[in-house]
């Protein structure tokens, strides 16, 4: 309470928890998503964006209520096509969101276990909607469908004009 504890234990396995990246790498990934080149060939795009189904042909739904594809959550949130993936490892949390119809990507990388990157990414999308017209439908974000420890925002409100002004043009690592 009131102090920080180092929690940097890199997992000894790949896959879930095994990805190490930077904001620059995510920017390249996001740009490539938009223009297609290295990662996002037509075959890879088709594979990564195809919602998964069980053997009984049921959709696999993630904690944010979106269908799960091959490594990404894909669907529509608040009227906007949405592609995302979040991650958690001891002491680290992240969220990546792509709004393909708006040619917009948001990446949030946190090195604090008490920060909620999914909520922060949604707040950034709210600000973008208010400032550049991303076009979110009004209303709250959907509640998480499972995992009570989910980082999804349950009752987010539209950003205030003061918040929009405060966030415009300010970025920091």
Structural commentary:
About 8% of the residues have low confidence. A four-stranded antiparallel beta sheet has the order 1-2-3-4, with helices on both faces. The chain is 25% helix and 17% strand. It has 173 residues and is an alpha+beta fold.
Look at the helices and sheets and give the structural class. alpha+beta
Number of helices in the DSSP assignment: 4
Query: How is the main sheet built?
Result: 4 strands, antiparallel
**Terminal Cα span:** 25 Å
Radius of gyration: 17 Å
Broad shape: globular
Describe how the helices and strands are arranged.
Layout: H1 23-35, H2 42-49, E1 73-77, E2 80-89, E3 92-99, E4 104-110, H3 117-132, H4 161-167
Antiparallel strand pairs: 1-2, 2-3, 3-4
Summarize the structure.
The protein is built from four helices and four strands. By secondary structure, it is an alpha+beta fold. It is globular, with a radius of gyration of 17 Å.
Characteristics:
173 residues; alpha+beta; four-stranded antiparallel sheet
